[in-house]
Prior knowledge:
Helix content is 36%, strand content 26%. It is of the alpha/beta class.
Amino acid sequence: MTPHGxxxxxxxxxxxxxxxxxxxxxxxxxxxxxxxxxxxxxxxxGLVGANGAGKSTLIxxxxxxxxxxxxxxxxxxxxxxxxxxxxxxxxxxMPEHDCLPPDVSATEFVTHLGRMTxxxxxxxxxxxxxALRHVGLHEERYRQIGTFSTGMKQRVKLAQALVGDPGLLxxxxxTNGLDPAGRDAMLAxxxxxxxxxxxxxxxxxxxxxxxxxxxxxxxxxxxGRLLRAATLSSMTQNVPWLAxxxxxxxxxxxxxxxxxxLTVHPENRALLIPVADDGVFDLVRDAVADLGLPLNRMEQRxxxxxxxxxxxxxxxxAHVAEPQP
Length: 325
Ligand SMILES: Nc1ncnc2c1ncn2[C@@H]1O[C@H](COP(=O)(O)OP(=O)(O)OP(=O)(O)O)[C@@H](O)[C@H]1O
């Protein structure tokens, strides 16, 4: 095993989560997941989708709490159908809904859950204290949870997920119910856990704009199906095409560039041109000058992650993302 629990085979670290054609139908006919094949690498992964997309169902299957109707899922190398108990001992889970007893202290609660993951009494107590310190509840650790704010309760849920030295954290809507400052603090905390502690983290959220800030990888699901999966770096780098907008004469410019061998795609008021090499910039600039056109803007195109993940993305961008031969 690797230090953080992901199994290693001949020195090659495998994905922390792998699903193959995963499906889940609930009694009554609701299809929550269908044909879902994804692979989650170590790091921080955002699992995004609207309410009802199937995120919580996926998490319950990954924890071995719910059997899939079709397909397979492996977590830290273990089959969720047969090794649920093993997986739950190695994975920290922060549930979406409030599930905290109001009349026990944070220390008692987190220690108790540490015992339930199999830790001896002293280790559970020590790890609970440590986890509560990490989430910023050291001072308040002996207070009854019922007296806590929503933000503090979310942090208790995160702390209990941290005990037992997990190799993976599954966090279901961790910013639920928090105000903007509380959301920022929770996201910063998750980012610190994922980067400084080196624990693989999966954060389920319906707010893409929020979790994209802390993730290395994003997996978007819609109606239980995979919409898109990609690393953040591959999405935020400049795509290789140029957007040019002229006040007037766009048709003449397109014809001129076409005559010089460039492929031009109109998009709203702009022309999009694949950038095969540096010469394209000069060619476009010279064409605008030669035709005497008023130039509004000329820029290499960047896309916001949210735009790339929108449902219409694959068809809308496909025709311009690939430079033409
Ligand atoms: N126990 C159940 N029985 C029947 N249908 C269910 C059950 N649990 C979830 N569903 C349905 O399965 C679909 C996926 O639900 P799920 O809770 O996994 O989505 P989600 O993305 O986590 O959404 P949310 O963030 O609102 O919880 C929804 O249509 C939901 O109504």
